[in-house]
Each structure stands twice: as structure tokens, then as C-alpha cells.
Design goal:
Shape of chain B: globular
CATH architecture of chain B: 2-Layer Sandwich
Number of helices of chain A: 3
CATH class of chain A: Alpha Beta
Largest sheet of chain A: 5 strands, antiparallel
Largest sheet of chain B: 5 strands, mixed
Strand order of the largest sheet of chain A: 1-2-3-5-4
Number of strands of chain A: 5
Oligomer: heterodimer
Helix content of chain A: 25-40%
CATH superfamily of chain B: STAS domain
Order of helices and strands of chain B: EEEHEEHEHEH
CATH architecture of chain A: 2-Layer Sandwich
Number of domains of chain B: 1
Order of helices and strands of chain A: EHHEEHEE
Number of strands of chain B: 7
Largest interface: A-B, 22 and 23 residues
Structural class of chain B: alpha/beta
Number of domains of chain A: 1
Shape of chain A: globular
CATH topology of chain A: Heat Shock Protein 90
Distance between the termini of chain A: 18 Å
Strand content of chain B: 15-25%
CATH topology of chain B: Transcription Regulator spoIIAA
Structural class of chain A: alpha+beta
Number of helices of chain B: 4
Distance between the termini of chain B: 42 Å
Helix content of chain B: 25-40%
Radius of gyration of chain B: 13 Å
Chain lengths: ~150, ~120
Amino acid sequence: MPPSRGPSGDPPGAKVRTISHQRRDVESIGDAVEEEMRLAGHPAAACFAVRLAWEEAASNAIHHGNRDRPDGRIEVATAIDGARVYLRVTDEGQGFDPAGVIDPTLDENLECASGRGLLLMRAYMTRIEFEPPGNTVRMVYEADAGRA
Amino acid sequence: MTAQQSRLRVRKQDQITVVEFVDRNILDEANIAQIGEEIGALVNDDPSPKLLISFANVDHLSSAALGALITINSRIKAKDGQLRLADINSQIIEVFRITRLDRLFQIHPGTREALASFS
């Protein structure tokens, strides 16, 4: 996690936004993060990694957290510099135990049609942590951490 | 009522149905559901489906898109059909490797190799 945090647990200067479940809202956050990453000098592979992690986190928040409620809202915090990208996603749900999610890479689970979002978030981000009760996920991508 | 715009480009080559995506980003779950329905209809209409899905135009895809592909694969297998994937860029092929779905799907570098692989 970033070395210092504000009262919300986000790094100082993080942009905090609340969005709806509308696709245009999810896309606008993804576009804004990608654009800010490019301006900060992150390569295309890093933008791909963070975009994918954001899409998966947003999808989890909408479907599993907020259970597709039309009036559901997601709080998103972002902080981006040349070395690090921070993303926090908080939904309005009861949370979940990430340890209880099946491993979709096991042979017996390969043909399960769901359950890969968390795997991809973990694979593409440098650090990821869920805060109890599990309705907040904080993710960090570090440029020099040997990923993407 | 206006007809829903297709999210696929479909052509027949010999007995093989070749599918390409209209969208560069396969992230929107409404679009993914539509893609699943459209490809599902192609599978349903063919007693022994041979399907090649080209990702030539695709820059991004999500786990929901992978789920749709798995469902399509199961439906094709249930009809003793064959599915091949091709033209997947290096970033997306990594997604298949991370999820180990490169073991589930027959993936070929290009359309030509994929077409030649059908029995």
C-alpha cells in the first residue's frame, strides 16, 4: 500500500468519485485512469493491466456487492503517479470472504464459466487487499514490480 | 422497433463458421451477453458446428467474456463440434495463460493455421 494515507485510507490527493452502475460511468473511470497513466509515462502494458483490474473490480462491486440494484452506487478512489497506480473500490454490499472464492485454475474448475475476476485482479496488480467485511478492495500497481 | 445491431462479423469458409468481433473492447456485459446469444444461435443452427473465433480486432476482454467463451465451448462439445480461437494479441494471450484457459481452448496464432486444424 502507499506509504501514507488520508483519513479514508486513501493516499493524500486521491480523487474520490461516486458512480452509478451505468456502463458509461464505469468506462469513464477506466478512460480517465488510462489517460492519467499515459500522461504519467506508464507503458501500454501497464495501462492494459490496470484497466483490466478496474473492469473486474467494478463488475464484482456491481454484481456481487450491490447485487445489480439499479440505484446502486460505487465509490472509487484513484491516485496515479509515474511509479504507482492506486485504486480503491467500495460497494454498498455486505462484503465477502475472498478466501472462499474457488480457484478457477484447478483442472476441475476450468470449465466453470465464472470466478476469474479476482484471479485477474491479483495477477495484474502488484498488491491487492480486501478490507473487512470485504466490500472495499484496495489495489496498487507498481511500475517496477516486474509485472505487465 | 429497430433491430439490434450485430456485434459479430460472420462468414462461412468451406464448412467452417468464422466469427470476428465488431468491438475492440469486449468488456460491456450487455454486449458480452449479446455476443453469447449470437454465437449460441450459430451453434444451435449447425448439427455439427465447426467454429473459428478470430480476436484480430480485440484489444481488451474481461473475465465475463471468458465465461461466455467457456459456455460456447461447452455447447459445441455437447454437439461433438469443434472450436478454435485465433489471432489473439500478446496481452490477451497472457489472460488465457493466467487463467489456464489456454489448456481448455485450442488456440492458433492465425486464422490460416486454425482453419487447417479442423478435422
